[in-house]
């Protein structure tokens, strides 16, 4: 099934009167071009799509949109062999609007929640979808784990897909019966206008800590990028974390524009607004017992998720459901249908062995939160196996070393997507952040590092395997090597071979 669209219908709203060429899809990759697929040649951050126009022509493209920086060229057309090339001014910024029009604005027929923040996006998106399913709504997700209906997710390449893929996915899910979609809105995607024309009902802001400074430059630009979510079309409700200081900037920008709901732990910091709080939390071996407090009522729920930050993630997802008009009693009852998010404090346990916990934590704050969370549930020693990515923000390496030393009883520094850098040099930069070099062992082979941690532990101890989470690969040099840490952890606990 393909959208019913012609080049003329697609471009008329943008001031271009083009021939009525039949279109079945839009593509950014010239290798995906076919006769009825419109090739979009945008000026990108690393590549210029216009350089690939000859390849698109050779593959039979009937129509090509080419970005121009000259406004006077907007709408100019030329035939090159069998291909019509149409010049489009500001194509990159308008791509979301173009894709929304091509796929007949699927978000208009869906309830849409968008989640941004340094940490927690993936878990909250998954939890919003799980709650929706438990409440009788067909739900889908788009984010780090991939995209699709609940339990039918296909892996993707980016946290937030490109503008065309985003609207195509929404159209496919809506066609398949989805009523609600929760998506991750990364800072890159917001700056690059990937969701600029995507109708969004509810926005959730989690937190802001150091990450992606290699792209944004500094924390103020990073924070401003996140706040671009407030400009989403159709936005009517905003969920804010009262424990996060950056939420005050969101509040100032949002006051009077949207319905607001705060979530957090303890007492309400903004009692004049609706809130959902964990008044008391009991940390149990099997999860958390949470005593909820809200102007809408109170309740006690049992969550299978570990740690304080997962209490916050759960509250954020529940708050989003309240913004969609669900009753608190119904949402609280739906907690029974919630399960652990893959690679997010995912527990692998056997009574006679140390417990392995796989988590995606790859930023200083995420590592600190994961270790703090596990300490609450740990009877014995807490070990941490982790590394830092190559060709990425080097400033966080000593910070993560210091955090591992502070919150774990022993850290084993290993390899994690070293890319073009020397893994040993990365590990030494991590260890440089530790006050006592004896606080860490360096073992660059990741599986050997995990086995070493197991050998140093006993039943009742917990080992955090940080950084890989849901990923099923290692990037060494320019090679992507199959490696599934969840499967490896499971094999160690079960005594089988991964």
From TrEMBL:
EC number, as in UniProt: 6.3.2.-
Domain Mur ligase N-terminal catalytic: 27-102
PTM: Carboxylation is probably crucial for Mg(2+) binding and, consequently, for the gamma-phosphate positioning of ATP.
Example of a GO biological process term: cell division
Localization in the cell: Cytoplasm
Cross-referenced Gene3D superfamilies: Mur ligase, C-terminal domain (3.90.190.20), Mur-like, catalytic domain (3.40.1190.10), MurE/MurF, N-terminal domain (3.40.1390.10)
Pathway: Cell wall biogenesis; peptidoglycan biosynthesis
Keyword Cell wall biogenesis/degradation set for record: yes
Free-text function comment from the UniProt entry: Catalyzes the addition of an amino acid to the nucleotide precursor UDP-N-acetylmuramoyl-L-alanyl-D-glutamate (UMAG) in the biosynthesis of bacterial cell-wall peptidoglycan.
Similarity comment text for this entry: Belongs to the MurCDEF family. MurE subfamily.
Protein name: UDP-N-acetylmuramyl-tripeptide synthetase
């Amino acid at each position: 099934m393909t959208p019913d669209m012609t080049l003329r219908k697609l471009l008329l709203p943008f001031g271009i009167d083009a021939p009525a060429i039949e279109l079945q899809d839009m593509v950014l990759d010239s290798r995906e071009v076919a006769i009825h697929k419109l090739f979009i040649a945008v000026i990108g951050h690393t590549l210029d799509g216009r350089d690939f126009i000859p390849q698109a022509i050779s593959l039979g493209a009937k129509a090509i949109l080419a970005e121009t920086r000259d406004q006077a060229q907007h709408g100019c057309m030329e035939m090159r062999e069998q291909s019509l090339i149409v010049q489009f001014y500001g194509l990159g910024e308008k791509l979301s609007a173009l894709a929304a029009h091509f796929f007949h604005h699927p978000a208009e027929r869906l309830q849409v929640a968008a989640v941004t923040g340094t940490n927690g996006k993936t878990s909250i998106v998954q939890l919003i979808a799980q709650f929706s399913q438990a409440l009788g709504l067909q739900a889908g997700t788009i984010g780090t784990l991939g995209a699709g209906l609940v339990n039918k997710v296909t892996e993707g390449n980016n946290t937030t897909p490109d503008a065309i893929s985003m609207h195509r996915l929404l159209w496919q899910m809506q066609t398949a019966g989805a009523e609600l979609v929760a998506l991750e809105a990364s800072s890159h995607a917001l700056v690059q206008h990937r969701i600029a024309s995507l109708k969004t009902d509810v926005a959730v802001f989690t937190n802001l800590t150091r990450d992606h400074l290699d792209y944004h430059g500094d924390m103020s630009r990073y924070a401003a990028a996140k706040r671009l979510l407030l400009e989403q079309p159709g936005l009517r409700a905003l969920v804010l974390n009262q424990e996060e200081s950056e939420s005050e900037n969101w509040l100032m920008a949002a006051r009077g524009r949207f319905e607001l709901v705060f979530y957090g732990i303890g007492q309400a910091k903004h009692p004049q607004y609706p809130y959902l709080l964990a008044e008391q939390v009991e940390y149990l071996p099997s999860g958390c017992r949470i005593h909820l407090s809200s102007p809408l009522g109170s309740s006690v729920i049992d969550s299978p998720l570990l740690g304080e930050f997962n209490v916050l993630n759960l509250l954020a997802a529940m708050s989003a459901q309240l913004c969609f008009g669900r009753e608190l009693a119904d949402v609280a009852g739906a907690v029974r249908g919630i399960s652990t998010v893959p690679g997010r404090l995912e527990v692998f346990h056997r009574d006679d062995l140390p417990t392995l916990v796989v988590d995606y934590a790859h930023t200083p704050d995420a590592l600190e939160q994961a270790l703090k969370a596990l300490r609450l549930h740990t009877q014995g020693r807490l070990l941490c196996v982790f590394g830092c990515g190559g060709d990425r923000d080097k400033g966080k390496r000593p910070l993560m070393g210091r955090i591992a030393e502070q919150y774990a009883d022993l850290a084993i520094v290993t390899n994690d997507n070293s890319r073009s850098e020397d893994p040993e040099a990365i590990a030494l930069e991590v260890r440089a952040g530790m006050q006592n070099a004896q606080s860490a062992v360096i073992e660059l082979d990741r599986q050997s590092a995990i086995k070493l941690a197991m050998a140093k532990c006993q039943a009742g101890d917990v080992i955090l395997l940080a950084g890989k989470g849901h990923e099923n690969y290692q990037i060494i040099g320019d090679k992507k090597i199959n490696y599934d840490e969840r499967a490896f952890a499971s094999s160690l606990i079960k005594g089988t071979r991964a």
